[in-house]
Amino acid sequence: MDFTFQADQLQALSKLLSCSDRDEEELDEEPCAGSFELNPGQIGPTNRSTPTAKEDFKPEKPSDPKRIWSEDDVPEGSEFEDIWDPRKQPEYEILFKQRVGTEDVFFGMSRKDSSTACCEDMVIKIKLPDCKSTDVSLDIKERFLALRSPDYKLGLHLPHPVDSKNGKARFNTDTQTLEVTLTMKREFDFINFA
Which residues fall in a compositionally biased region of kind Basic and acidic residues (predicted)? Predict the structure, then answer.
């Protein structure tokens, strides 16, 4: 596309967008075309309804008056984040794993395909060179994995919610890799029906 403009077209556009030819009284009454005034009330989501009477407004009563915030206000895994920690972040890889049988592979009896939507497990491989399995501390939440060792630290936000109570961790001493297998929490749909 060609976006070349002639001089008269540019002048007309400039006149349209500028307010210099108006008097100051006109500017006080009406803003320029194409401009608007932004105030603090326009920032953020719009209010659905505002209480009109004192009866309509009911403040939330905290369960414990000494609590400043609830656990829902703090994002999961934020207690493990420390920007001043000098330990290195290890290399890691997230893989997805399916549970398939012969009926899936040879006959195609289930609706599973090779996409991650059909996977049941998440496998996280973390490389920890020069580290022993006894030095590793692992904490798993529904959407966060925290790993600590004397040389490494990893705070990983997981792409899918997992079952934090049931999982397996295996340390391979030959490759010095920690392999964590976690079952994902999936909604039942036409693919994940079992």
Answer: 53-70
Residue 96 has pLDDT above 80, yes or no: yes
Q: Mean pLDDT over residues 106-124, rounded?
A: 78
Put the strands of the sheet holding 137-140 in their side by side order.
137-140, 144-148, 153-157
Cβ neighbours for 137, distance < 8 A, ≥ 6 positions apart: 147, 148, 149
Average pLDDT over residues 79-98: 84
**H, E, C per residue of 77-128:** CHHHCCCCCCCECCCEEEEEECCCCHHHHHHCCCCCCCCHHHCCEEEEEEEC
pTM confidence score? 0.57
* CATH entry 2.60.40.790 includes domain 78-184: yes
Cα(125)–Cα(122) distance, rounded to whole angstroms? Answer: 10
Residue 161: pLDDT band with limits 50, 70, 90: very high
